[in-house]
């Protein structure tokens, strides 16, 4: 049985990664003052941050139309028997549900939609593993079982400069944003039950990043091999410095550098940093 792998743009995989495994990507869009753009297709991350800096209107994000999924699945049905379609958390976007509905509308191919319950590079971990296994001839059940196993040691923590982005975008409660603003804290955020919530409230960004490192250190001590990614919101030098510092301390962790693109960057804001990791399987 031939299996195709599909994801959305918020996995922020490189074009080289997508080409290597023939991964198909459906873009989400960001709506700015001068129009709507499909991220990773019509606008880059750096272009996005330049456009929104000082803008009067807060950007909005849009999930892909179901028709885009239907069109892609119909195309894939010509050459594949099954699709594994992996998407950002259903708690912050309807993209996963769109893939589910489109899969029910297309004949001649079986679509397995997978809710990553997360986003960005950790979502990409699922995608790359699924694509690698599909190339090696694994069945859909074997791939989905492995993805569920990966959940057991997959973490992602985010430190944002300004909680108002998450609050205005509806991804964090007004109460949580208000508390963070009043106390001038730099909360460590994470995904819990598919939504973004505060993990701990910490006074400074430096201490918040140190706390995230402590969480990584615990898993690094308990597992033979981890893959970890520093994720930055238009602060590549800061992210790279942090990555290099961590790489010198944890020899059993394979570090990578990625970014928050326009859609996720809309909700986190410029200057945010994240660290995600997973057990290497």
UniProtKB/TrEMBL annotation:
Gene3D superfamilies: 3.30.1180.10, 3.40.50.10170. The keyword Disulfide bond does not apply. Coiled coil: none annotated. InterPro entries: DegV (IPR003797), DegV_C (IPR043168), DegV_domain_contain (IPR050270). It comes from the Bacteria. It holds the Pfam family DegV. Keywords: Lipid-binding. The keyword Magnesium does not apply. GO terms for molecular function: lipid binding. PROSITE patterns: DEGV (PS51482). PANTHER family: DEGV DOMAIN-CONTAINING PROTEIN DR_1986-RELATED (PTHR33434), FATTY ACID-BINDING PROTEIN TM_1468 (PTHR33434:SF2). This is DegV family protein. It comes from Lysinibacillus halotolerans.
